[in-house]
Amino acid sequence: MSLKETLEKYSKSNMYPFHMPGHKRRLKGCYEIDMTEVPGVDDLHDPEDVIFQDQKRMAKLYGADESYFLVGGSTVGNLAALYATCSEGDTVIIQRNSHKSVYNSAMLRHLKVEYICPRLFDNGIYQAVSLEEVHQAVEKAKNPRAIVLTSPTYEGYHCKIKEIADYCHEKEIILVVDQAHGAHLGFHPSFTNSAVKYADITIQSLHKTLPALTQTAVMHVSQGRVDLNRLREALDIYESSSPSYVLMNSISQCMDILEEGVDLFENYVDKLQNFYKACGQLKHLKVVEDTDENKDPGKLIISTKNTNITGVELARILREKYELETELSSFSYVLAMTSIMDSEEGFLRLEKALLEIDENLTTGNVEVPRIDYRPTKKIELYEAKSNRATDVKLEDAINKVSAAMVCIYPPGAPLIVPGEEISTETVDIISFAKAKGLHVTGLNKGLISVVN
């Protein structure tokens, strides 16, 4: 039986729980399968039975050598990946627009960090990292132990993973791919570019693009170059010692859906194609398409760049007037995330709303700051976090070394990283983002932490 079937059977048994959790399974709903590690339901940290078998099922489903359930999101995977593959003092190359958990992993492991700084489109969205940019970063870093890439990006842009993986392995560099937004890749010809068979470690959030509960994720290992004992040790360190059976049940159920979900993906693609076709009528707004399979069609980027409203304003209109909540709003675009579970009615509501809004817009040119600058690193990330720090006003922080990681969230990619010099340009971008209504994290009541 799968973990899901096992939990269902156990919940209906006459077994009385003189053990955790304290609700004693006496409440309805998910409480009935919320277990602890008792005989018959296995142990995530030492799986030998149903969890072990479901992890093997996951590896087969995705084409990995090994797969590990994660119940702390892709964050746990990112933390464990660098702990397992690098030692203190090693150099790691990080894609600059990586999630903050990648940076936290480098900080906790005391790694030296170099960056790949991808180019930007004119709407402020990062492009996918190219093989040439990887070459340049490796030459500059000198003997990096690992490279961490984000593919697809938050907005759905893919690297050419196979080419990059071949190069990394030729150079004996571990390739870790944060593919948090790509758990659905490989299950339909319209969704390609899965990193699972090419990268050494691929981390995917099931909950972002598949029918699974928030915090469910999976780590895939391939290529035979990763020390699995060290990886399991890392997962023991970073993941809860009381992993949620409710979340693991959701992972098991998600696999059931994937194994039988051909029609779901076919219908999903049909709905996407109809949506893109209908949005071809837009005069001012633009739904970004990509013809070379470099972009995930399920990520709907609605650009306001050539209109008289910002992305933040468009998101507000969609929320307040049409009751449509989008994933992300930025200076000149809105991101609407879709999945196989989206209904035709949902797509039609968004289509109708955009066409109506578009009729009332005029031509314009929304200002988008250039955030692809290269800050000056003064000390390593972990060194900055080890020093004493003081909170100061933004305008007083110029030319000082940041102790804070400041991000526009979502997606959570940092504008400035601890150890970097705070420039006038950085302060201007932070101030501009706040003025435009974007959510900036890493500040303390408007103050920024600097190294003493």
Care to describe what's here?
It is a single chain. With 452 residues, the protein is an alpha/beta fold. The protein has 3 domains: 3-259, Type I PLP-dependent aspartate aminotransferase-like (Major domain) (Aspartate Aminotransferase, domain 2, 3-Layer(aba) Sandwich); 263-359, Aspartate Aminotransferase, domain 1 (Alpha-Beta Complex); 381-451, Molybdopterin biosynthesis moea protein, domain 2 (Alpha-Beta Complex), CATH 3.90.105.10. Helix content is 35%, strand content 15%. The protein has 14 helices and 16 strands. The protein has a 7-stranded mixed sheet, sandwiched between helices. A 4-stranded antiparallel sheet has the order 8-9-11-10. The radius of gyration is 23 Å and the shape is globular. The N and C termini lie far apart (58 Å). The model has no long low-confidence stretch (mean pLDDT 96).
